[in-house]
């Protein structure tokens, strides 16, 4: 068992997991998936197509005849990590195909690694398949290569990410994701509901809804109607959550919402959480609190109203858990503006918080802003922000000692079971550990525990 580190980057997907047998003579493709859960879903789609063509899948370079590296371009540090992974794959394997967000800059990649076989951008699935076919011809056996109904999943079998849209219409000055992934493109509601149904039929116990801007779902489709189960469903986040929630609740599973932009209609989701159709959990990227910093970011600047909204959400659903991410050291951020953020945190008392130090990213408009903050000041503010977040987290978790919590079991080893409460998303939030009487548990079980100990970010409990 390992405890959750407080400085874990909140944009990262869980590590990929593949556990499938390989038949004799079956061509094997390795996959290295970097970045966020949205990229992980892209990796799953690529591997599902390859698996259907008879390829075996490896989570790394071991024994693979070629390797796909799905890159991240969110921050310059993420770009460097992607280049390092490509270099390692070339060294360990030699045949490397690059895709993902950084693939939108092919000259940047080939300038460093000219020996890669191909570079494709995000969501260019056909080009990835073509490159794989050229490097390693398929050799399918239709009598043996049966594709799982839910496709290839890179997460543990008991939870799965479900992406409802691509792209983003926002123009935040620090972000280049819309340049790489394009404008908002929502999936039809019936396609999402059908995927939900298939995941639940396959035994998934938790569905994590994701996109670049989840609360904008359907805006590009003018909230059109889709036929579903003898009726119609509107392509709107409230309607979609309600219909998904009905299926998830009937299956006694969980539905968790990520990347929810704080539009006014988010308040319509809260009653659905109170009804048990979705977990009482909102992942909202506030980024900052001071109105002037938010304006320089080109984001809504109503932090005081945000506090009112948070209070209203908690009034309608007292058990709601709020997660967010913030940026410190944004260009022009003064000590007064940073202190405003700390004071806002004292009032908001968010349950789960991640934080970035601002970085320039090639192509971002924020690079040209004046008064960039010195690195040592950014580090100091990050330390102070995380100290504040830790104090809030510690107090909230201490208040749970003695309470009963429903948990889902993620891992089991000789030391105990690593679980998550309804308040914890995989690998970015905290854990609940059971170190006695766990021998009868299995991964994916949902059980009730009594919390008997708390730390800054994690809980310990015993089965009841």
UniProtKB/TrEMBL annotation:
EC class name: transferase
Role of this protein: Catalyzes the methylthiolation of an aspartic acid residue of ribosomal protein uS12.
Gene name as annotated: rimO
Protein name: Ribosomal protein uS12 methylthiotransferase RimO
Span of domain TRAM: 398-464
Cofactor stoichiometry and binding remark: Binds 2 [4Fe-4S] clusters. One cluster is coordinated with 3 cysteines and an exchangeable S-adenosyl-L-methionine.
Native species: Thioclava litoralis
Catalytically driven reaction(s): L-aspartate(89)-[ribosomal protein uS12]-hydrogen + (sulfur carrier)-SH + AH2 + 2 S-adenosyl-L-methionine = 3-methylsulfanyl-L-aspartate(89)-[ribosomal protein uS12]-hydrogen + (sulfur carrier)-H + 5'-deoxyadenosine + L-methionine + A + S-adenosyl-L-homocysteine + 2 H(+)
InterPro entries in the record: Elp3/MiaA/NifB-like_rSAM, Methylthiotransferase, Methylthiotransferase_N, Methylthiotransferase_N_sf, NA-bd_OB-fold, Ribosomal_uS12_MeSTrfase_RimO, rSAM, rSAM_horseshoe
Binding site residues for [4Fe-4S] cluster 1: 36, 72, 101
